[in-house]
Design brief:
Blueprint: E1 18-22, E2 27-31, H1 32-45, H2 59-62, E3 83-95, E4 102-106, E5 112-117, E6 120-123, E7 129-137, E8 143-151, H3 152-157, H4 167-184, H5 194-204, E9 208-220, H6 224-237, E10 239-240, E11 243-244, E12 246-248, E13 251-254, E14 261-267, H7 268-272, H8 290-294, E15 297-304, H9 306-312, H10 322-333, E16 341-343, H11 347-351, H12 354-364, H13 369-372, H14 375-386, E17 405-407, H15 408-413, H16 421-425
Antiparallel strand pairs: 1-2, 3-8, 3-9, 4-5, 6-7, 7-8, 9-15, 10-11, 12-13, 13-14, 14-15, 16-17
């Protein structure tokens, strides 16, 4: 828990007075007597911070205060498919509180037990939204910070097929769109743009709090069937020290219910082609090439939550360089054990009629079909397969050694997919 203002100068009244306190889930209205107790508890047990410089950290003095985690440096390419997907954080921005309404809890006698300020929703240019909420309102009624929660890549780009690991730039683009959207709704900030300019400078310098983020990368498995085969094998065989994988609605989760970190794998192509409209590509992207590009790609996602980030001493935006984000992603991916092999689906198999796919797979594995199939079936299948350049009368040229069986982790140890140049040319990636 942190505070930007010393409590020594704050006068808290009796039972008829009240204050607003943010415990992480929204502002809660607390009566005066309870407020006095909380104030004393903070004075007795916490170091109170006297200025907005609380977002800064002295790395030389705090490095030893956190968990010592050995994070290996991995090769990072600036054009990799790595991206920040979901982000939850808090930026320094003095402004008039954004109107959003409140939720009241009313006792049986009609008295208000507590009041929670609701978050507001702001929509970007592609109908993607973020949750925002004014926070740390001072005695003059001015909010000191702005909470931002949502898929900032999708909010800025309109899609999250690929994106960027430049978190400062991504958040700055999101903040610009937030200001534009709120002004279109008639929301007033100040008489001039000074505080907006200050907020942008802080974001550019990485002076903002990071409370949760998702780091994504894509891996090319060639076709949709191979992605599904990999996910099925992961569901059955992948595990961490905390337990085995869990599959829900096509997504394979590792540590799904953890309050610290989690990893998930899913078929992005199937997601954007599902019946769930919130995952479908917006109409303006239908002919952009995104659908074709994502076919056969496995999406791997690492989520780091507030407890884990705090434990690691990683809470400021300036600490999350693209290289650092890539290293964190690979570190947590490396905590997953995947020993068995997985068979990726042969591209040629996908083009064959279903009636001969079984015979083709047996032939690829080295089986003499002339001895195992009925005579009429053998010649009928031979005729069909011959039209695809396959002659099952002879052994395969590689001697029947399957070339599509690979260790599961080798898929993830390979270099992730790189972003295509046409995505930059068509401004499909926020830069």
């Amino acid at each position: 828990m942190y505070c930007q203002k010393s409590l020594d100068g704050i006068s808290v009244g009796g039972g008829n007075s009240s204050i607003l306190v943010d415990f992480g889930e929204g502002d809660v209205l607390i009566d005066g007597n309870t407020s006095l107790q909380i104030r004393q508890l903070l004075i007795d047990n916490f170091e109170l911070i006297n200025s907005m410089d609380a977002f800064s950290t002295n790395e030389s003095t705090t490095a030893g205060s956190y968990r010592n985690l050995e994070i290996e440096n991995f090769e990072h390419s600036h054009d990799s498919s790595g991206m920040i997907d979901w982000f939850r954080g808090e930026i320094i921005f003095k402004h008039l509180p954004i109107p959003s309404g409140s939720v009241l809890n009313i006792e049986a006698d009609g008295s208000i037990a507590y009041e929670t300020v609701k978050p507001a929703f702001v929509t970007g240019s592609h109908e993607s939204s973020l949750r925002i909420k004014s926070s740390l309102v001072d005695s003059d009624g001015i909010a000191q910070t702005l909470l931002i929660d949502g898929n900032i890549s999708k909010f800025v780009q309109g899609h999250n097929i690929f994106g960027s690991l430049d978190m400062n730039n991504l958040l700055l683009n999101a903040f610009n769109k937030i200001i534009v959207s709120l002004r279109e709704q008639g929301v007033t900030f100040f008489d001039n743009d000074l505080e907006i300019a200050k907020a942008k400078k802080k974001i550019f310098e990485g002076e903002y709090l990071v409370k949760m983020l998702d780091i994504n990368f894509l891996y090319d498995l060639s076709n949709d069937a191979s992605v599904e085969s990999w996910l099925h094998a992961a569901e059955m065989n992948a595990r961490t020290r905390s337990g085995r994988a869990l599959r829900d609605k096509g997504t394979v989760y590792m540590q799904k219910h953890s309050r610290r970190w989690a990893v998930k794998f899913y078929n992005k192509w199937r997601e954007i082609n599902s019946k769930d409209k919130k995952h479908q590509l917006k109409p303006e992207f239908k002919d952009s090439g995104l659908d074709k590009f994502i076919d056969g790609k496995l999406r791997a996602e690492v989520r780091l939550m507030s407890l884990e980030l705090s434990d690691l001493g990683l809470t400021l935006g300036k600490q999350f360089t693209p290289q650092k984000l890539s290293d964190l992603f690979n570190h947590y991916l490396g905590l997953i054990e995947m020993k068995p092999n997985v068979t990726l689906v042969d591209e040629q198999l996908l083009r064959l009629p279903r009636t001969v796919q079984g015979s083709y797979q047996l032939w690829r594995s080295g089986t003499n079909l002339k001895e195992t199939l009925p005579r009429n079936t053998f010649y009928r299948h031979r005729k069909v397969l011959a039209t695809y350049g396959v002659d099952i009368s002879f052994p395969p040229v590689d001697g029947g050694i399957p070339n599509n069986v690979v260790p599961m982790m080798r898929v993830l140890e390979a270099k992730p997919v790189t972003n295509p140049q046409w995505a930059y040319d068509n401004k499909l990636i926020a830069v």
